[in-house]
TrEMBL record:
Membrane-crossing residue ranges in chain numbering: none
InterPro entries for the chain: 6-blade_b-propeller_TolB-like (IPR011042), Beta-prop_PDH (IPR054539), Cyt_c-like_dom (IPR009056), Cyt_c-like_dom_sf (IPR036909), Quinoprot_gluc/sorb_DH_b-prop (IPR011041)
Taxonomy of the source species: Bacteria, Pseudomonadati, Bacteroidota, Flavobacteriia, Flavobacteriales
Domain called Cytochrome c: residue spans: 466-555
Keyword Cell cycle: no
Keywords: Heme, Iron, Metal-binding
Leader peptide range in chain numbering: none
Record carries keyword Zinc-finger: no
A UniProt-annotated Pfam family: Cytochrom_C
Protein name per Swiss-Prot or TrEMBL: C-type cytochrome
């Protein structure tokens, strides 16, 4: 054979090989999932691997076109509030990790956002939105940090999540200052303020010019109102509209015990999945969505008020998710790796919440809502589960991990961050997309019967029916939602009562805290907490003595009870130090 024929023969063989390789299933280019999928349960043929572990309290994340991952942290690690991750050898694992963002700790950090838009990394803190130009080839941006938006610092619902449309606009969530705009926040029987003045600057979405710097809230336009805290927010480029998941209000039984049972308080109100058009009104604080009745209901604080805004003028949700699941991120899938049924559908990360006590906590999952024939489904699927780990016993223990942020890589992989330890999973599909069938979802559908996913049964799951101690009944009504059944708090917003010198020490200080409430910052066991504890002076001296006795003797190592006359002394201003 002539050398020319040999040359063309080799060229033909190479061409055929390239065509074959290109036509092969893309799974050959994807890394292998971990043997145990990083602890996750997923639909058949989906796999997961852990990209990094323990990078800090990770919140939202974004993935660049080259696969670099950028994560916003709740608190500083290595004096920085952001972390950048690179997989240098393409095995799916992050092997280059760098922390950056040297803004002042007292001003920055907080549970906030991370997005990539128009060549910039945008990230927000509790007092500002910043941006840095991405430096090609460099993991950590070298450009100057610019202030895009500056706003006031406040202690409730501080997450400033971001979304960007196709016309150069940036959308920012401004959460409410209170739980439901009561005259005395989170205080039983306190009526609602009317009109609610918070709505002027809070509890809504504001629109800004994404290309301008040094803006204030006054430079923006209020795009939507009546949204208590829309942390999970994303622009849908298919429908060309904004979508939000709102966190519903808390503690209906504790605040209105004669109107709502513990079971109703655990179930309601819905976490709402909403399409938000300009001028939309979600109804907060005057209304909430009841997913059991499938309708909006007047909030108890406003039952006797002649409301100017009528229910017919409000935006209704696509789905009313179970109460207190805490939706914290939303992502519309536009990649090509997953089967076609996932195209343009909504992935939602439910952080999980503790406001269901005495019933089991719920959430701690990533859900999926299909987009079919131009509409979102009215039902949801469990896409990723297993975050709760083995420490979650009968629905009452802490979750090992809490799914927080969602982002898509350039190859269509889905990334999920964890806010408790800072783990990041990469979820990939290794099956034949054309052979996908809904039978692959059957095991995930079965998981809906698990304690942390199903709706709690009104009688069987109600632990309070089995409580014998009156102090524990009072604790169960007024304290357990924040401080948890074991008295150890949630490790983030609400401090522990078990093992706390606030509880085991000076009884006068403890009684005053119940009577007068506390406003942060408060240091407990060396950690600072900024949330508000409402005053409980509506409780009788006898009831305060009972609940504090329960806390001191049952949640601690029997440091002695509190007597009714001791509470009376403190209430009447005749107290002296009591240990």
């Amino acid at each position: 054979m002539s050398s020319l024929k040999i040359y063309f023969s080799k060229l033909l063989w190479i061409s055929i090989t390239l065509v074959f390789l290109t036509g092969c299933d893309q799974e050959s280019n994807l890394p292998e999932g971990d043997i145990d999928n990083g602890g996750l349960f997923l639909p058949d043929r989906f796999e997961a691997l852990v990209v990094v572990d323990s990078i800090g309290n990770a919140r939202h994340l974004a993935v660049n076109d080259n696969g670099d991952i950028y994560v916003k942290l709740t608190s500083a690690k290595q004096d920085s509030g952001n972390v950048a991750i690179r997989d240098t050898n393409r095995d799916g694992k992050g092997d280059e990790i760098a922390y950056f963002g040297d803004y002042p700790a007292e001003e920055g950090y907080g549970p906030t956002s991370m997005r990539i838009y128009n060549g910039y990394i945008f990230y927000s803190t509790k007092d500002a939105v910043y941006r840095q130009k991405i430096t090609p080839g460099t993991l950590v941006p070298k450009s100057k940090r610019e202030v895009v938006l500056k706003y006031e610092i406040y202690t409730s619902h501080i997450a400033k999540t971001l979304a960007f449309d196709d016309d150069g606009n940036m959308y920012v969530n401004f959460g409410s200052l209170t739980d439901n705009c009561q005259e005395e926040d989170r205080t039983p029987l306190s009526p609602g303020q009317y009109p609610c003045l918070e709505l002027e600057k809070h509890a809504g979405i504001w629109k800004f010019d994404a290309d301008k710097i040094n803006q204030t809230q006054q430079d923006g336009v209020r795009y939507a109102t009546g949204l208590r805290d829309g942390i999970a927010m994303d622009w849908n480029h298919t429908t060309n509209s904004l979508f939000v998941l709102e966190h519903g209000r808390d503690d209906m039984h504790r605040i209105w015990p004669s109107l709502y049972s513990e079971w109703e308080s655990a179930m309601l109100p819905a976490e709402e999945f909403l399409e938000i058009k300009e001028g939309a009104n979600g109804g907060w604080p005057y209304y909430y969505y009841d997913q059991i009745q499938n309708k909006r209901v007047v909030s108890p604080e406003y039952r006797d008020v002649d409301l100017e805004v009528k229910v017919s003028e409000l935006t209704n949700p696509i789905i009313g998710f179970p109460g207190h699941w805490a939706p914290n991120d939303l992502f519309f899938y536009t990649g090509n790796q997953f089967p076609d049924r996932y195209k343009n559908g909504a992935f939602i990360a439910f952080h999980g919440g503790g406001r269901r006590a005495p019933y089991p906590t719920g959430g701690f999952v990533v859900c999926f809502v299909p987009y079919i024939n131009g509409e979102f489904s009215k039902s949801f699927e469990i896409f990723a589960d297993g975050f709760i780990g083995e420490s979650y016993k009968d629905g009452m223990g802490p979750a090992e991990y809490r799914p927080m942020g969602l982002a898509m890589g350039p190859d269509g992989s889905l990334y999920v961050s964890d806010s408790r330890k800072g783990k990041i999973w990469r979820i990939i599909y290794r099956g034949d997309k054309d052979d996908f069938s809904e039978s692959q979802l059957s095991k995930m559908e079965e998981r809906k019967a698990l304690t942390h996913i199903r709706d709690p049964h009104e009688i069987n799951d109600n632990l309070s029916y089995r409580l014998a101690d009156e102090g524990q009944r009072i604790y169960n009504t007024y304290c357990i939602a924040c401080h948890q059944a074991d008295g150890k708090g949630d490790g983030s917003r609400y401090p522990p009562l078990a093992g706390s010198d606030w509880v085991t020490g000076d009884k006068t200080r403890l009684i005053k805290a119940v009577l007068e409430g506390l406003e942060g910052p408060v240091t407990v066991n060396g950690k600072t907490y900024d949330d508000v504890m409402p005053k409980m002076d509506f409780l009788s001296d006898e009831d305060i003595a009972k609940v504090l006795t329960y806390i001191r003797m049952n949640l601690n190592e029997n440091v002695g009870g509190v007597q009714e006359r001791e509470v009376a002394r403190v209430r009447n201003g005749t107290q002296e130090e009591q240990h």
